[in-house]
Amino acid sequence: MTDLPWARQCFYRTIAQPDEQINLAEAALYIAQEEYPDLDIEAYFNALDTMASEVEERLPTERYPLRMIQSINQYLYEDLGFTGNTSDYYDPRNSFLNDVIERRTGIPITLSLVYMEIARRVNFPMTGVGMPGHFLIRPSIEEMEVYVDAYHHGETLFAEDCQTRLNQIYGQSVELQPVFLQPIGPRQFLARMLTNLKMIYLNRDQAQKSLAAIERILLLFPDAPLELRDRGIVHYHLGAWPEAHKDLKTYLAKVPDAEDAVAIQQLLDRIAPNL
Where are the alpha helices (DSSP H) in 20-127? Predict the structure, then answer.
């Protein structure tokens, strides 16, 4: 790992521990530090601490969950003006925690992270919910099926509201399956953040940056076949023939019946003369 960029090494150290010990904000800031090498991690921890202290002062005496949510919403969205970025959703800055804190705008998962970090600091832990096409959070109270949409000013949702939101996202009726509302762990959370960056950079033809996102996903999930495939394809476009060959061969070995097996084999055939 010593040949990796410093921020990547720090990211790896942060995630190389049991799930319950992974500090999401720290890992997210190390993701951002690859984009901003001079980023001061502690400054953003201090910003989150300050926000949490100000929320703490506003909390009601009776700390019922819905009252806690109401207090955090008031502070984040009305006092500070945090909001979902509807004008430039695919701006990569929406995926960097430092930018989201500074600009007070982001996408569902990064706004959820800010919300979760503040909630954790005021002893109201919340967890991420990776609903398809969107991202929600919920209090870490097993019997309490209440969801918060950090992208839409902390709107409180129940299961039937999640069904409505899902239909809105896809523009048609989509069956809300129980798995859609299951909590996700820190590794899945970080992988989803990195997948957003990966897709943004692929769409912008920024191969090296998309490669960096894929490689960090593979630090989280070393055996993820689709990430190995995608890394192989990016290596192919970069002309890194041995690396592309290794990844694509590994992908086919892991998923021999993949729908794209023929296309991947064709890529391997094109690579072969360059080895």
Answer: 24-35, 41-58, 65-73, 97-103, 108-121
